[in-house]
Specification:
18 helices; 5 strands
Length: 408
């Protein structure tokens, strides 16, 4: 009789857990945020809808909105932009690390996301506010990370290409905007106004997306009152995965594979349908499609597809062996097949792959560029978590062996 009540309580607790269980936390509310709202019919950053931002704002303005909490005035934007430009250059120890990574990258022992993750971690050793978690210190660190991550990406691509580092002293060209400067540091060529606009909008689209895997990772880490650089490093590790940020790279690799298999002449013909049907039959995971939240399509995908397609129409020469517009012809055919046969819409990673490819951006840098955008959202969430914290500690359902004796 003495064990009946505890046993009943235990069974009741287990039943409550089972009732609340959702694999992958799907549909579970994990917290509150004033940073972003992801809805079926809209995506909102601090009250501003994504189509509105993509059409009328710059990435610098959106970064200010996310980090400082409101739309900037002209004077605030001028001050914010100057702060970012002044922080673009890297500490010599970080630059030395990047220069040392050529062998790892060439041998395949590391990929750009690995190098970026480690470089951000090293930045933490060089930041005077590294161990502080006050709102003021966090905002200073967020601006430094926003400024320096594109420099890391640019220097890393220079190392991969065997070129001297562009903008070693100043982190690029101080007269260029944030997105344009990142492309300049990667290539040594100042982008056209059209290219700068496309990459700028892509950064806006990728800047924030509520409690996604990498943002949630950053919030879990910061929920222990760990520092911003540690939380961001964890976010980068989460974003690397092909089921999250790495999907844009995998989507482009899939399109390249289709072109290798069917040729340019096969685009627009049943050959692509046959390729896709084989993928369905073999249960191949096709990246760049579907979304945990959006069931009727990702609002961001159409914005970037239209921009990328418009830019591709102006480009001459071939990209991966075919003219730039043909990649979008193929992409639209693949999208139609997925929608017709599987009722699955593309997410923003699908047009991102094609758009970055025709801009000449190497595929392994797609996800690092994602980091250059999402750093704003991560830092906004870290600041929010630190300001109103409760450690994030969910329960689990045990499905291991029943209790047993060690010496039984």
């Amino acid at each position: 009789m003495s064990t009946a009540a505890p046993a009943a309580a235990s069974n009741s607790a287990a039943s409550d857990k089972q009732a609340a269980f959702a694999k992958g936390l799907e549909g579970i509310v994990g917290g509150q945020t004033a940073v972003c709202s992801v809805e079926q019919d809209k995506l909102i950053y601090r009250g501003y809808e994504i189509h509105d931002l993509a059409e009328h704002a710059t990435f610098e303005e959106v970064s200010f909105l996310l980090l400082e909490g409101h739309k900037p005035s002209a004077d605030e934007l001028k001050r914010f932009t100057a702060e970012i430009v002044a922080e673009r250059a890297l500490h010599p120890d970080v630059t030395a690390f990047i220069e040392s990574t050529g062998g790892w990258l060439a041998s395949g022992r590391a990929v750009p996301m690995d190098i970026l993750r480690t470089a951000v971690s090293i930045l933490g050793h060089t930041d005077p506010d590294a161990q502080l978690v006050s709102k003021e210190a966090n905002l200073r660190k967020a601006k430094r990370l926003l400024a320096k991550i594109p420099t890391i990406i640019g220097h890393m691509q220079n190392v991969i290409d065997g070129r001297a580092l562009v903008g070693r002293e100043w982190g690029g060209d101080p007269t260029l905007g944030h997105a344009a400067n990142m492309l300049y540091m990667m290539t040594g060529r100042k982008p056209s106004q059209h290219e700068a606009k496309v990459i700028d909008v892509s950064l806006i689209l990728y800047a924030e997306h509520e409690f996604n895997a990498s943002t949630f990772t950053s919030r879990v880490i910061s929920g222990t009152f760990s520092d911003m650089h540690g939380a961001v490093t964890g976010g980068i590790a989460a974003l690397k995965g092909p089921l999250h940020g790495g999907a844009n790279e995998m989507a482009m690799e899939m399109l390249k594979e289709i072109v290798r298999d069917v040729g340019e002449k096969g685009i627009g013909t049943p050959a692509v349908d046959d390729w896709m049907q084989k993928a369905f039959d073999t249960k191949r995971k096709l990246m760049g499609f579907g979304h945990r939240v959006y069931k009727n399509g990702d609002h961001r995908a159409g914005i970037l597809h239209n921009l990328g397609k418009k830019m591709a129409a102006t480009l001459k020469g071939t990209y991966g062996g075919i003219p730039a517009p043909r990649w979008f012809d193929l992409g639209e055919q693949v999208q139609k097949i997925m929608l017709t046969k599987k009722n699955i819409h593309p997410n923003v990673d699908f047009p991102c792959g094609m758009t970055y490819f025709v801009m000449g951006i190497p595929v392994p840098q797609y996800t690092p560029i994602f980091v250059a955008a999402r750093i704003t959202g991560w830092c906004a969430h870290i600041i929010e978590q630190h300001a109103d914290n409760r450690i994030i500690r969910p329960l689990s359902i045990y499905n291991g062996p029943a209790e047993r004796k060690w010496n039984g």
